[in-house]
């Protein structure tokens, strides 16, 4: 068999000539911001970065509440929902840790905001994100990348300002938005079963 | 503007001539079985059919146990895992309803089988599928189709042979296998939070 | 076997209660425009609508050139590229009908614009979209939907203002952008082989 | 801000404990063969390997024909179609280099086999793969990975046993089958335009 040449096999060629979108990095014509195409596969590193961002956001909301009060915390929680969740793309499958029927599932942004900071008479919530959280540890049992979506499952350990620890069983599902950012389209959180 | 002709817009043309794969239905050259391509988008009807199949399988295992004993139930549970879950494709993110740390997550087939029918000294399980289930009701809060994968969230209500009712909060994630069948790659089940 | 109830099987329930994203239709919080999520499966109807839009755009550019001149046609061609192609998301794999080496492939917006309307000294093009096109007929050999992407192949027949007819073999590949609109990420056009 | 711990961020933890499917590598319960899940994102390396395999297969069929005759070449071509193309999954969008209307597009396996080795009275083909090909060079203009599908475009240069060179403009689209192997679902090949 005669040797097959494939120019793409040489790194030099790939780097200098070929247009690659793996994942696609593009300069938007209008904004000059570097983004990732919505079709690009999700990487494990992106999932972990999104998890870290979620943990940081929860601590930030709790700290904002303790420092600047409910209005500032509510503003911040709204910003977190708008940047980290996919409510702008359609329903989000969200089962928070401490919800009760008939308000178990929070498929709308309003329901999610009520869960995190309370203050909505349509929901009985007192505000999960206001409980003094200061540290978040994420221990993944597994991450599965399914094309340009991804899911993760594991334990999340929350520590509050008094040192009290809460462990939850956590599932997240991620999709890309128009800027290529990961957004949470699925969030199932539950307290561990006890006998 | 001159009218644009598009032959594909006429149903007659579409039906008679064009090769369509929406979703792709194919005759396998080797098996002559009609299948759906792994790349085909998942439909809501397929998700609901997979949910019904899961409920029927749980009732079938419980009934098999009560009628024919543990060996027959274990055989059936193994068949269910091999046909309805994606353990043959990689890890499955499975958090069953009643598991305890450090065996909370069952990413392997062995761990899942132990949960459903017990009998594995490496796991403390007594067999969730052996608890006399006779009826399953599924009430979806939402289904989201993400290309050729899908997720669902809602309540599942289980009734046993004595009429006792158990409600769980349930998330499922689905992928297609090589025959186009939906398989569960994600399963998070939890008892509702109680104050 | 006891009958399995599945509430989602009743149309009334689905219509009134469940959050469905099949495909996801959402109100954007900021714009109030109804869009489709980037993750939603592509439908055959969307592919055909995108093909019709491409044909209409080609006729529109040609007519604009004949009516209002090269500047107006160039502006319109730029708008078409920005709305119908995926150059804003990364490279586009574009092999136009009449290009010559070493400018065969036009993976950048600049190269595509030069092909359609000429006027770029870096490319030898005289402007394919300026050739008096008045009618476009699209005859698909096949459409394949692959999750939230899609491809089509077939003949496109172009008729100019003098009644001259050009037939090309055409492949298009589509992805969704952040607003859910289909964009051309792949376009291979070639004159039929002749002996 | 208190430091966020994320156990998955430590390589040791990832390697020892977590179930990862990026892409999913699995032991099939029935065959013990290591495969990749159909849902796993496609990598650039896989696209290039599939391109090399296509080039090797074309040279192998041509060499088989010159050495062992048409029957052996036809057998080999059939094997190549069954292993490298997606005809077993649905229609394949295939526009070969040298086909004429009304047989331009070969969406079925039969039409593809006729193109490569001839011998089918329903098609006018004399057998493209029988033309003495001895060397294949692939020069990609671009590769775009779209989740668990991928497309490539570029030039393919074919050299026959007499040293004659043929250059074609080539587009390939790839999907995964049930074993995770890439298969060609799209193939548009055309001779370069000449003035």
Keyphrases for this structure?
homotetramer, 195 residues, alpha+beta, two-stranded antiparallel sheet
SSE order and pairing:
The structure is a homotetramer of 195-residue chains.
Chain A: E1 5-6, H1 11-16, E2 19-21, E3 25-27, E4 34-36, H2 44-68, H3 70-84, E5 93-95, H4 109-117, E6 133-146, E7 149-160, E8 165-176, E9 182-190
Parallel strand pairs in A: 5-9
Antiparallel strand pairs in A: 3-4, 6-7, 7-8, 8-9
In short:
The structure is a homotetramer of 195-residue chains. The first copy, chain A, has 195 residues and is an alpha+beta fold. Chain A is 28% helix and 31% strand.
Structure write-up:
- Chain A is an alpha+beta fold.
- The first copy, chain A, has helices spanning 11-16, 44-68, 70-84, 109-117, and strands spanning 5-6, 19-21, 25-27, 34-36, 93-95, 133-146, 149-160, 165-176, 182-190.
- In chain A, the strands form two sheets. Chain A has a five-stranded mixed β-sheet, covered by helices on one side.
- In chain A, β8 and β9 form a beta hairpin.
- In chain A, α3 (70-84) packs across α4 (109-117).
- Chain A is globular, with a radius of gyration of 20 Å.
- The N and C termini of chain A lie far apart (67 Å).
- At the B-C interface, β1, β2, α2 and β6 of B face β1, β2, α2 and β6 of C.
Count the E strands of chain A. 9
Strand content of chain A: 25-35%
CA radius of gyration of chain A is 20 Å
First and last CA, distance of chain A: 67 Å
Assign the structural class of chain A, choosing from mainly alpha, mainly beta, alpha/beta, alpha+beta, or little secondary structure: alpha+beta
Oligomer description? homotetramer
N-to-C SSE string of chain A, H for helix and E for strand: EHEEEHHEHEEEE
**Mean pLDDT across residues of chain A:** 88
Shape of chain A: globular
Largest interface, and how many residues on either side? B-C, 48 and 47 residues
Largest sheet of chain A: 5 strands, mixed
What level of helicity do the residues of chain A show?
Answer: 25-40%
């Amino acid at each position: 068999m005669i040797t097959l040449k494939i120019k793409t096999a040489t790194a030099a060629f790939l780097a200098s000539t070929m247009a690659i979108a793996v994942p696609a990095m593009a300069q938007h014509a209008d904004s000059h911001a570097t983004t990732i195409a919505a079709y690009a596969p999700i990487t494990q590193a992106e999932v972990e970065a999104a998890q870290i961002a979620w943990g940081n956001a929860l601590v930030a909301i709790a700290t904002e509440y303790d420092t600047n009060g409910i209005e500032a915390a509510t503003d911040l929680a709204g910003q977190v929902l708008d940047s980290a969740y996919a409510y702008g793309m359609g329903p989000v499958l969200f089962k928070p840790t401490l919800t009760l029927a008939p308000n178990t599932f929070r498929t709308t942004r309003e329901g999610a905001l009520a869960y995190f900071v309370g203050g909505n008479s349509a929901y009985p919530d007192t505000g999960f994100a206001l409980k003094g959280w200061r540290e978040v540890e994420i221990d993944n049992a597994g991450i599965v990348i399914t094309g340009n979506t991804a899911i993760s499952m594991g334990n999340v350990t929350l520590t509050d300002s008094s040192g009290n620890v809460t462990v939850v069983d956590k599932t997240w599902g991620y999709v890309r938005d128009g800027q290529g950012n990961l957004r949470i389209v699925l969030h199932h959180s539950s307290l561990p079963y006890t006998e």
